Amino acid sequence: MAYLQTDISKVTTRVLQSMKAQGEKIAMLTAYDFSMAALLDKAKIDVILVGDSAANVMEGYNTTLPITLDEMIVYGSSVARASKRALVVVDMPFGTYQGNSKMALASAIRIMKETGADAVKMEGGEEVLESISRILSAGIPVMGHLGLTPQSINKFGTYAVRATDEQEAEQVVRDAHILEKAGCFAIVLEKVPAKLAARIAQEIKIPIIGIGAGAGVDGQVLVLQDMLGITQQFKPRYLRLYGTFGEGICSAVRQYIDDVKTESFPNDKEQY
Ligand code: KIV
Questions:
Q1: Which residue ranges make up each domain of the chain?
Q2: What residues flank ligand 1, with Cβ below 6 Å?
Q3: Which of 115, 162, 172, 232 has its CA 20 to 30 A from that of 7?
């Protein structure tokens, strides 16, 4: 199907802004490696997020906290090399920007120089404003991330939906305004009530990209392995499955094992 922005050769932050203005929803997925990013780019995804969810789906950690800047740079550069059209955003990992804006800028510069990505993403509102402003002043586009911010899991103590009470909801709205005013080009809004997310998307001029935030926002993001059915035992309410590739991979591997054991692979044509 042809959408308003199908024919453009490169998605930029300005393109995302015009998509919001024209009412075209933004489609974003995560990727962490060259092969998957090349497929996403070929399919014309708008934005590829090299999320610190790599800590979970690529490295098997329970939280996103352990992943390092060096690791994010390896994932980021692999994705950027494969992405010709999509805007590539790399997550700044835990401990590389909180509470020290000079360190934040140095981390963001390393990401931009060493990966070839188009932008960085960081979690938090007012509390990371100084870091966001310093990074923006160096000409590096910043995507914000509000609502459920997994790097703060030890403060929240749960991955449950955020901002269900009025006080926290108003704080999220205030933070969204702060990020917009600071100059962020978009905000990811994770796991908040749909009504609150829709209100924020209406009040805020920059694109709001939701995950578990309902349909009233400007775009959606999912973790690739989750939506492809590769991740095992992770089925939050907001997740729609677009395949059962986990099953497909297992059955292909079982067939391969069988073929090797029964000596039906390789056959005469599959050798030199
Ligand atoms: O790290 C990540 O994949 C993310 C998305 C869930 C938005 O931040």
A1: 4-241, 245-272
A2: 30, 49, 51-53, 91, 145, 188, 190, 211, 221, 223
A3: 115
- Among 211, 153, 202, residue whose Cα is nearest residue 176: 202
- CA pair distance 239, 268, nearest whole angstrom: 45
Known catalytic residue at 190: yes
Mean per-residue pLDDT pooled into runs of 10, the chain (272 residues): 76 98 98 98 98 98 98 99 98 97 98 98 98 98 98 96 98 98 98 98 98 98 98 93 97 98 98 97
Alpha carbon of 271 to those of 137, 257, 258: distances in Å?
58, 18, 19
- Domain 4-241: top CATH class: alpha beta
Among the listed residues 120, 117, 116, the one whose alpha carbon sits nearest the alpha carbon of residue 104 = 120
Q: Are 172 and 217 in contact (CB under 8 A)?
A: no
The residue nearest atom 1 of ligand 1, judged by CA position, is: 51
Residue with tokens 């962490």: 32
- CA 175 – CA 110 distance, rounded (Å): 26
Substitution site in 221, 225, 228, 238 for ligand 1 pocket (most atoms within 8 Å of beta carbon): 221
Cβ contact 91:68 at 8 Å: no
CA distance 135 to 149: 20
Contact 130, 101 (CB under 8 A): yes
**The pair of three-digit structure tokens given for residue 64, joined into one six-digit string:** 């996103």
